[in-house]
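General statements about sequence and structure are easier to judge against a single worked case. No coordinates are needed to read the tokens, only the vocabulary itself. The sequence in question and its structure tokens are set out directly beneath this paragraph.
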Amino acid sequence: MIPGVSNRRRFSDLSEQEILALAISSEEDDAQIYRTYAQRLRSDFPGSAKIFDGMAEEEDDHRRRLIELHKKRFGDVIPLIRREHVAGFYARRPIWLVQNLSLETIRDEAAAMERQAGAFYKRAAEGAKDADTRKLLGDLAAAEVGHEHRAEELAEKHLGADERDEEDRAAKRQFVLTWVQPGVSGLMDGSVSTLAPVFAAAFATRDPHQTLLVGLASAIGAGISMGFAESVGDDGELSGRGSPLKRGIASGVMTALGGLGHALPYLLPDFWTATMVAFAVVAVELWAIAFIQNRYMETPFLRASMQVVLGGALVFATGILIGGG
């Protein structure tokens, strides 16, 4: 291969045999993706898993019809050509990323897959000269476009309104348990627990640089500590709280951000200017925590506000008293 020159074929340069081969490999890939979706969802969302099982069977049927046409026209040997061999052709998300997708995202991904496949078959049919090939590709274009309706039919069969609502609620609960709760706990711990050392250092030294160093050390140290504690304290198998790695990342990152919020203002050279900015940041942090608790954890806003603001105010006052003493 000459450096700088792509080894991909243009779609317009593909022969009808190569287009059929590309369609066959694409149907095989899509069926496998749907089966992977089904496996990923089966334990928590069995109704949706059955929908993807049905969609995988549809893709298998398309593949069989394409292979039969290829054997009739070109024989048994199918050229090896895949999506990545064609310039500008649509790509699929790497299958290992399925573990990181929410239920709603998986549904959206499947809808996008059907739209892309429908556009491919429509374009391929327009360029086909053989009548049988043109007919099959046109039929498959209509089938892919109609898969959205097929998915609705499968949903009605396997996923009633009550079951779908329950799956949506379960998906929301899982999101809250895996990301929101550890993140909020981390944000609260980082914001509140670092108040005392940051403002104690600030009022003891009146030196923005020294205060910044204390704040950075407190925030980053707390983030590492909380991240490890969250990830090793519960593997999620029995509690149902999801991946310990995800929870550790959520907790660690949000803890560090919570502490950095009122430490970074001390990048400003003037002590009192930096301190006033830090006061404002603390107020925003505490109200943000109360909002998140109300929004995602359904804690009444007034109660969340009282808990967060009162606790933060006590720690904040402690730091000032110790530093100014």
